[in-house]
Amino acid sequence: MSVASNENPGSSSGVVGDRLASWLSLTLEALHMEFANVLYAVDAGVCTITVNRPDKLNALNQATIAELAVAFASARAEALVRAVILTGAGAKAFVAGADISELAHASPSQCRDLSQAGQRMMRAIEVLGKPVLAAINGFALGGGLELALSCHLRFAAEHAQIGLPEVTLGVLPGFGGTQRLSRLIGRARALEFCLFGERVPAARAQELGLINRVYPAADLASEVRKLAERLAQGPSQAIRGILDAVVQGSECGLDQALELETQIFGLVAASADKAEGTQAFLEKRPAIFRGV
Ligand code: COA
């Protein structure tokens, strides 16, 4: 694991960065885990989590799934982190799916455990309460697409290829893909992905509403970074409220979802950033949000 920082004010540099680094390493020590397959860096309120198995196109083996769960738990717990970028190491792949070499030898009960572990980790991303932006820098296949689907926003490089090829291996998406993709792009289109297992280019995925924006490969990281920084500098409580209302609200009936929105609206209204944002408008000046 590496904890990177720069000299920007508000970044995790200096004493704060050291404390963060030691807190994270203590957390990992407490969990008897080391990050072998994940990079974790915090800079200017943005945490970047990178799946780091480029020689295996960042395939998700069990160890990587467990490490991602810890990395996202750390991002959730750390107050300095106000937005998260998830990406893959190397230029070729975001994540090329579950690790087929493990899958090939897994018993049915081990496959169920694998499905559950992947689902839990991805659900924790979806309900993180901080915006998670997937920077899809290449293949996002199978579990890689499922991982991206658990993020709140998806941005892709032009060369990225996206699909759910599990059926070609005689299995099905088991990390939430059968559910999240149909909720996102509709049942008929999701079934086409699941049943035929074909890959689509990033531009087509954008047309389908699966990808938010597509960038030239050379611009992807910097463009996603700009968006993440904008979110990190925003009113965190309102942003969390939006995530909770949209994610949890889309999982219940309309009346219940509207009640949820009202409750969250009341909570967010107690924030200092709400006072600042509305006052700044009345005073005809830009708001300065502090994330409280
Ligand atoms: N699990 C395990 N290893 C994987 C992998 C996966 N999902 N995807 C790629 N790899 C490994 C390859 O086995 C190869 O390893 P090796 O060099 O030790 O042989 C390495 O990553 C590079 O992959 P390779 O297939 O040689 O690259 P390519 O450019 O020819 O093809 C893909 C790229 C993505 C089209 C191809 O790797 C692929 O189809 N991967 C599987 C995708 C998939 O079915 N995912 C769903 C899994 S449930």
Task: Report what the structure shows.
The protein contains twelve helices and ten strands. With 292 residues, it is an alpha/beta fold. It folds into two domains: 221 residues, 2-enoyl-CoA Hydratase, Chain A, domain 1 (Alpha-Beta Complex); 47 residues, Lyase 2-enoyl-coa Hydratase, Chain  A, domain 2 (Orthogonal Bundle), CATH 1.10.12. Strands 1-2-3-5-7-10 form a six-stranded mixed β-sheet, sandwiched between helices. Helix 10 packs antiparallel against helix 11. The longest helix is centred in the middle third of the chain and has 19 residues. The chain starts with 13 loop residues before the first helix and ends in a 10-residue tail after the last helix. The N terminus is likely disordered. Bound molecules: coenzyme A (COA).
